[in-house]
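User: Let's play a game. I give you a shape written as tokens, and you guess the letters that built it. Ready? Here's round one.
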């Protein structure tokens, strides 16, 4: 029995079972691969890149001379060598092999992160010929590779301004300069709405509880149902940052991470005004508050926050509720403390400073929570 956990991109592209699944989308094959990916979340990106390679290869099998093979392999290797010198190696590079004869032409789109593996696969295909695919009750049939409705669309923002556009499900994205994102032409055939991001993007997700939205960024999977958030994770960055503006997201790693149970299916929950920082080198998560927390309650709620001899317990409760931030303090120790202040137009951290000064306390931020330290009031 095959152990797909040991496969790399080239192995998947050459595997008959994998090719059959990508091409024919048989319900039985779909069920197997959906279950396999659930059990092996760290393989999502490899599977996605392998599927793209299979879907984007077009070939009409014709005899190819040894001289043609050698010439086109040399051309392919030269193109790959040149692409490595660019900031985004292989992204969006299109090569046409054997252009002199339409019947012999191979069209390849090399996608980011898969250029070298794809090149190796194509060289093998040219030299050794295409594998043959078996299918129940149909015997052996030649493999025909052609783009399908599930092919990924890739957008690469090479400008110096954010690029905004909608996805097929109504989700809107603002893609930052120097960033790249790939997504299916249609989301109808999969259980989740998956997109693949390299760089930074702001998402406003179209709600669809029956089909969760997921962003795969490097080692991380961010899962949402309907919210607005920002992800920053360029390939050269040592950290990935996920900032939530509204709603909630869950973030999990495709490999074991310090402080997170490997068996936890939900990952870490990130709420509004929180930012999750993933340190790539040490594979560790750190949850912090954003630099400028904003109100999370509706505009119809009174934001005046004017107090006159008000128990500090009530002040902290209201402050935490308005910003969606947990404020931890000792109720009994602060039971005699009161606050008289007008905090209407003050930013969040200045509000905290003024309250703590009034009661002789201090605070620190621990795991995206505010922890109040005080000796109490007389």
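Assistant: Ready! My guess for every position:
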């Amino acid at each position: 029995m095959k152990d797909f956990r040991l496969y790399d991109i080239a192995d998947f592209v050459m595997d008959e079972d994998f090719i059959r699944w990508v091409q024919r989308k048989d319900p039985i094959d779909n069920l197997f691969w959906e279950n396999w990916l659930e059990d092996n979340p760290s393989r999502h990106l490899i599977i996605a890149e392998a599927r793209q390679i299979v879907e984007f290869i077009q070939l009409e099998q014709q005899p190819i001379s040894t001289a043609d093979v050698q010439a086109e392999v040399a051309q392919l290797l030269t193109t790959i060598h040149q692409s490595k010198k660019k900031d985004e190696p292989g992204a969006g590079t299109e090569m046409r092999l054997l252009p002199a004869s339409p019947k012999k032409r191979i069209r390849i789109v090399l996608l980011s992160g898969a250029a070298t593996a794809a090149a190796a696969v194509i060289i093998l295909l040219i030299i050794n010929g295409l594998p043959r695919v078996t299918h129940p009750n149909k015997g052996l049939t030649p493999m025909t590779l052609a783009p399908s409705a599930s092919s990924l669309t890739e957008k690469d923002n090479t400008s110096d301004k954010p690029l905004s556009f909608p996805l097929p499900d109504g989700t809107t994205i603002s893609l930052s300069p120097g960033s790249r994102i790939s997504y299916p032409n249609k989301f109808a055939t999969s259980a989740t709405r998956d997109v693949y991001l390299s760089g930074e993007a702001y998402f406003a997700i179209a709600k669809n509880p029956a089909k969760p939205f997921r962003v795969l960024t490097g080692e991380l999977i961010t899962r949402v149902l309907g919210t607005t958030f920002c992800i920053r994770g360029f390939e050269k960055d040592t950290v990935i940052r996920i900032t939530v503006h509204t709603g909630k997201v869950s973030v999990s790693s495709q490999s074991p991470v310090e402080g997170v149970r490997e068996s936890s299916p939900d990952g870490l929950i990130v709420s509004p005004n929180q930012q999750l920082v993933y340190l790539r080198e040490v594979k560790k998560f750190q949850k912090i508050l954003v630099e400028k927390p904003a109100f999370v309650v509706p505009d119809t709620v009174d934001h005046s926050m004017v107090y006159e001899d008000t128990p500090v317990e009530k002040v902290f409760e209201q402050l935490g509720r308005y910003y969606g931030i947990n404020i931890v303090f000792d109720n009994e120790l602060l039971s005699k403390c009161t606050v008289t202040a007008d905090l209407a137009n003050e930013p969040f951290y200045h509000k905290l400073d003024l309250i703590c000064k009034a009661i002789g306390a201090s605070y620190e931020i621990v795991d995206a929570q505010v922890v109040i330290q005080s000796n109490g009031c007389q």
